[in-house]
Amino acid sequence: MSYPPLADVRKTFRVDWYRSPIPGAKLRELSRRSDRQAWIQAGGHMALFILTGALVFHFWTLQLWGAFLAALFCHGTVTSFMRGVAAHELGHGTVFRTKWLNRVFLYLFSLMGWWDHHDYSSSHTYHHRYTLHPEGDREVLLPIEPTLASTFVLQLFTINLLTKPRRILDKGGLISTVVVTLQAAFGVVGPDRVPVFEWRRALHVDQPEEFRKSVRWSRILLLFHGSILVIAIASGLWVLPLIFSTASFTANALRYFIALPQHCGLRDNVNDFRKSVRSMRVNPLFSFLYWRMEWHLEHHMYAGVPCYNLPKLYEAVADDMPEPRTLIGAWKEMRMTWRKQKEDPGYQFDTPLPPTARRVRSEEPEEIELESSIGDLAPAGLQ
User: Fold this and answer.
1) Strands, E, within the chain: which ranges?
2) DSSP notation for 294-350
3) Residue 199 contacts by C-beta under 8 Å, 6 or more apart in sequence?
4) Residues of the chain with confidence (pLDDT) below 70
5) Do residues 225 and 245 make contact, with C-beta atoms less than 8 angstroms apart?
6) Is the Cβ–Cβ distance between 258 and 290 less than 8 Å?
7) Model's pTM, two decimal places?
């Protein structure tokens, strides 16, 4: 399918989003960033990475292979949430009040997760402005299959080697990621017949400065992980790449199961986030690893609110929101929707709203300015 240039989209297309009403003072309070809470979230995640990585190394040196595999599984689970989750929130710039701390942790998490935060900043800015309207947002394209194919799930519970890129922010499994990063380091993008590459090229044409930064960052990624490999070969410490370079592709199951429900099976081309984005309730550990992004509807509605304040945001607008799903309930809903879509490709699940929900609101200019904020995400060319 052919799409208009993104420069034209910005000039001619605007989505008149519905957002649940909230007093301006309350929204300002919830939008306030806290270094203390940021250290708990970002510092805590990094501490888990260091702890599980140390356990992997410890059991490797003792040749306790059962404990080594268990530690590697835990380390992979923790690290997989750095790719596309931790870097997502840090990319918004809403985590730390101190901006340079936000930037330092963004670089650290991006290195560990093979994450290109420059392509991300362009793509995700469009994703928030035009959520699931394909002419302006092809970061996520519906329909999405909530697959549980045996070979795919096996990779999720072991090492994700062979999966293909599904969206620009996720380059697929280890082999695909290395290939895409190598290509990106030389400014090469795959064929337009693959939607993820078509979207990447459209962004590069629209934001050439971010494209140049993406090329440089891809080279840094290759240099960093290549150095880890050289050190491992020279020292005989072959465990080092498992700790630093392949960990984000190890034990990806939890990340897949908890992240896929964000938009899967819902409606596109609508101006109501309640119909196109899904929130869930999960246990505190999953919520911490997922950086509170289970409150994804609230994140889209008011993207300037830091992740650690999203549960409070939900409470403030709960009477206007659909009931959050459970993780199991979300998957049942997605699987049911996918079965219907195979018979009727045009079918999309229409999220029911509570009787107290509204569909039209009066807006004050102050509130409009606050609700349109996406933190420090947008690159200079899209501000």
Assistant:
1) 280-281, 325-326
2) T-HHHHHHTTTS-GGGHHHHHHHHGGGSPPPEEHHHHHHHHHHHHHHHHH-TT----
3) 123, 138, 139, 168
4) 167-169, 361-372
5) yes
6) yes
7) 0.94
